[in-house]
Specification:
The longest helix is centred in the first third of the chain and has 29 residues. The protein has two domains: 93 residues, no CATH class; 269 residues, no CATH class. The relative contact order is 0.19. The chain starts with a helix and ends with a strand. With 382 residues, it is of the alpha+beta class. The chain contains seven helices and 15 strands. It is 21% helix and 29% strand. The strands form four sheets. Strands 3, 4, 8, 11, 12, 14 and 15 form a seven-stranded antiparallel β-sheet that branches. A four-stranded antiparallel β-sheet has the order 5-13-9-10. The protein has a two-stranded antiparallel sheet with strand order 1-2.
Length: 382
């Protein structure tokens, strides 16, 4: 019969390796009901095809019957199933089995969402969450009026440890933190906005300079009484012209703050959680994030700090910052700029009008660190 002839031909080509026979479970399901009349089908195959149809055409078969077409369909379906099973096996072998105690990547947002959903209270999620805070790095001026240098001592400089309205100090001057210092706000020391913040990236920028001269020396110089607040560290100072600050602090051509650059090249940044501040045990957790020079320096001034392609440094998933440390399993959050070694920055004292150079007592360098991420906020019931 014609059908047996077709199958005999394919059995021969299978043995010779010209065609591929199904070598796994074949599809033996009955074909759908069709007309029993014999139909001829043109055998079309592209050049280079080594499949069943091309093999038959090479052996003089220009047409096939309906029964033969059904036999070829059964072979094709069975061969397809074998291929899919093999692909599935390869895929299963390629996927490593994760340890049972491993936290899957990007699970931070899912875990917080589940926790807030379980509270049954109204809440909102902001994708463009942003917190910022400033720290002061006091640079003592040592040496003489003709040969001096700024000394930045090794140590830790904290951020996010003060909220708006709390006390801060500028070069020894007591002041109150405003939104220029941070946007972290608490109605009081014992009440919170009930917000959890998943940190996803960080940025930083220079936040300003202050200078403090000896007030007694300032009073001796005629015409500087109105500038006394600036020269005693009570006001911000922007002075790349070198009227009140040593000109060595700024790059001659670009105006870049080289004192700020020296800190970026030398320091690292940590995240820190402290349970002792929240009535817990003495446990603290301190995580090294990166070298400060790897944190992108940006002066983006939009409400959505992470949009628009601004450079950011992604941080590992799962770091939480909450304005209510009592709800944090790790305690109160802060960030730390750590300078591991002293930094010496030579400067040349300037003449403020006394007829001779006057050495400042210290210069205040201020850094701003920004946390970008997803904010979960409690909402009052309506």
């Amino acid at each position: 019969m014609a059908t047996s002839n077709v199958m005999d031909i394919l059995a021969s080509t299978d043995a010779e390796g010209e065609t591929a026979a199904p070598d796994d479970e074949e599809d033996t399901g009955a074909p759908e009901d069709e007309d029993e009349e014999t139909a001829s089908a043109e055998l079309e195959a592209e050049d280079g095809d080594t499949g069943d149809i091309n093999a038959l055409r090479k052996r003089g078969r220009a047409s096939i019957t309906l029964d033969e077409a059904r036999q070829l369909q059964v072979r094709a379906r069975a061969r397809g199933k074998v291929v899919e099973r093999r692909k599935a096996k390869v895929k299963a072998k390629a996927r490593p089995k994760m340890p049972a105690n491993m936290v899957p990547p990007n699970s931070g947002a899912r875990q917080i969402l589940e926790r807030w959903s379980a509270r049954k209270d109204p809440f909102a999620v902001r994708q463009d969450g942003h917190y910022y805070s400033i720290t002061e790095i006091p640079c003592k001026c040592l040496g003489t009026a003709t040969r001096a240098w700024l000394h930045i001592p090794a140590g830790e400089y904290k951020l996010f440890d003060r909220a708006v309205g709390e006390e801060v100090r500028f070069l020894g001057n007591t002041a109150t933190a405003t939104t220029n210092w941070t946007n972290l706000q608490r109605p009081s020391k014992n009440t919170y906005n009930e917000q959890e913040f998943l940190i996803q990236s960080i940025t930083m920028q220079e936040a300003g300079l202050r200078v403090r001269y000896d007030s007694g020396e300032i009073e001796k110089i005629v015409g500087l009484s109105e500038a006394k607040a600036v020269l005693t560290g009570q006001s911000w100072l922007w002075d790349d012209a070198g009227m009140f600050l040593p000109k060595e602090i700024f790059h001659d051509t670009t105006g870049e703050n080289l004192l700020y650059r020296s800190v970026r090249r030398s320091a690292v940044v940590y995240f820190h959680w402290d349970k002792t501040r929240t009535g817990g045990n003495a446990n603290t957790r301190k995580i090294l994030i990166d070298h400060l020079r790897n944190v992108p320096d940006t002066k983006v001034r939009t409400l959505s700090r992470t949009s628009g392609g601004a450079p950011v440094l992604p941080v590992p998933d799962g770091y939480i910052f909450t304005d209510n440390p009592e709800r944090s399993e790790h305690g109160a959050f802060s960030a730390i700029v750590h300078i591991p070694e002293d930094i010496v920055f030579p400067v040349k004292p300037i003449d403020l009008g006394a007829g001779a150079p006057t050495k400042p007592l210290e210069v205040g360098l201020y850094l701003q660190l920004s946390l970008n991420g997803i904010a979960f906020e409690a909402k009052p019931s309506t």
